[in-house]
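pasting for ref
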Amino acid sequence: MDQAAACLMICRINQLLSPSLLLKWWKADPSMSLTSPVLETVTRGKIKAAALKNKIEEQYPKLQRVLAAYHEQGINPIPISSKQYPFWLKTIYDPPAVLFAKGDLTLLSKGRKIGIVGTRNPTAYGIQIVNHLTKELCRKNWVIVSGLASGIDGMSHAASIKAKGRTIGVIAGGFQHIYPRENLQLADHMAKHHILLSEHPPETKPQKWHFPMRNRIISGLSEGVIVVQGKEKSGSLITAYQALEQGREVFAVPGSLFDPYAGGPIKLIQQGAKAIWSAEDIFEELPERNVQYTEPF
């Protein structure tokens, strides 16, 4: 394990630095040297570099024991310096400095990915749409990314499993506090056969502000995001706007003017999102292509 990976994991697991400062340090000095003056510059005096250096060195001998305990639980921390870190996520402005993964790590680099999000209270129409789109996307080997929330999110994961596709769930807290509890069985299945991701250490309880932060990871992992039902001020629109900021495609499923859960997609379409009637509309916007990627950092 190199210096950068060790520093990133020690700081994140023990919460020695805020996630934003930790990312800032790594961007400014990818080697994360403890003797470099970069840290003082990055933190602007908020953190004493000497004190932080002592804390990191104090945690070094304990790191392997912590990682071994994580491994027993099936948890793999992936620092942003690692080749296992998802390429698409690495390209966004504020990627997590460390990802915690549970499941099939090959899914992070395998297949094209698309996000599906929507209301926690879908109508029969919304359920029909998510099942149909997910089935068609899985037939083309797209990996479905969502947030394991109630409603459309959980249904998109379940539909991809039913279609024998692959799916990635991004949770808001740590793995020891799966939320909502109604999706615990689904989460367990995904951790064994697909993959769950979090930017938080396993013992972290989900807080209200974790959910919008989680949304940037859903969109960041994906080439595009599909919004299936949601009110005008729903969390689904937060994901859509983050996708736009990240340069991703945004798709919206139109609904009835008399359905309050159609308000979000209609607003997105008015603002330039692509209205979709079938999976073919997505394939036209995101055609098959051979792209050679380069590392963004």
